[in-house]
Amino acid sequence: MSSVRDTTLQSDIGKMKLENDGSFKRASSAFRNWIHPKDTQFPAERDRYHLYVSYACPWATRTLITRKLKGLEDIIPVTVVSPHMGENGWPFASVDPFPGADVDPLYNSKHVKDLYFKADPNYGGRFTVPVLWDKKQNTVVNNESSEIIRMLNSAFNDMLPPEKATVDIYPEELQKQIDEVNSWVYDTVNNGVYKAGFAGTQEAYEAAVYPLFESLDRLEKMLTGKDYLVGDRLTEADIRLFVTVVRFDPVYFSHFKCSLRDIRHGYPAINRWMKNLYWTNEAFRSSTNFQHIKVHYYWSQTKVNPTRVVSVGPVPDIEPL
């Protein structure tokens, strides 16, 4: 199906359409099923599900971090795509053998879009990662990262040793606070950098970039003297913010013109918080691949960087503790 139909508007970010005012509006994820321990359609089972991700994508690396924190490596295998997202979208190593990228072990797909068409031959949305795949039904369970990390947080606890089953990034007593923080961080920071970077007019850019830095100022105050955003423990609020902040100086500052201040010089509390997570927690460090990050943004987003020249800075990608 994908070979006889023009899908470039779905797969080629260089042909991405903006709103009439030049602003970027992110499309909603299309697959929103849930894995439950006793669900009849998508029950929690060992080695039934497969996770497709990109190291470059902040949304996908949310799921990598959570998978590692929960000790799900032997329960949910993972496949990494190449950062060279071109006219056909995310490629696998079979067509773009980039260091650290994998061949699709299930179907030897050439691109992530092949999986979407396997799940739905008439699929009309974008071919995004992460993809949580069901190997029994040959379909996408979910491609919304915020929901996938909550599934990973609790759905497989019965299969895990106690020290991993008790890891809880969305504890009941903090859920209201986590949801409140997530709401404005998503709008102005996680998605805010994209709204600034993809803006097609000066007005749309400024309407995104100033709220972004207002929220960073707010986060700086929240993290001053603290190791975590909510409560005194690691939660999904930290995971969701980390994946944006760790990309800020390498790509968002210059590539997306989020250049009022960088993190390492402008936000000492945020910088300390980010470095602490990266250097002291293997789940964060192993899920961060700066080569994939920089190559993807500078090479793939030709509307923003038509020369595809990849920036060599900053040095280092992240400062030592």
TrEMBL record:
Residues 171-297 form the GST C-terminal domain. GO terms for molecular function: glutathione transferase activity. One of its GO terms (cellular component) is cytoplasm. Glutathione binds at W90, R126, F127, T128, V129, E144, S145. The active site is at C57 (nucleophile), Y194 (proton donor/acceptor). InterPro entries: Glutathione-S-Trfase_C-like, Glutathione-S-Trfase_C_sf, Glutathione_S-Trfase, Glutathione_S-Trfase_N, GST_Omega-like_C, GST_Omega/GSH, Thioredoxin-like_sf. Pfam families: GST_C_2, GST_N_2. The record marks Y252, Y297 as: Lowers pKa of active site Cys. This is GST C-terminal domain-containing protein. It comes from Pisolithus tinctorius Marx 270.
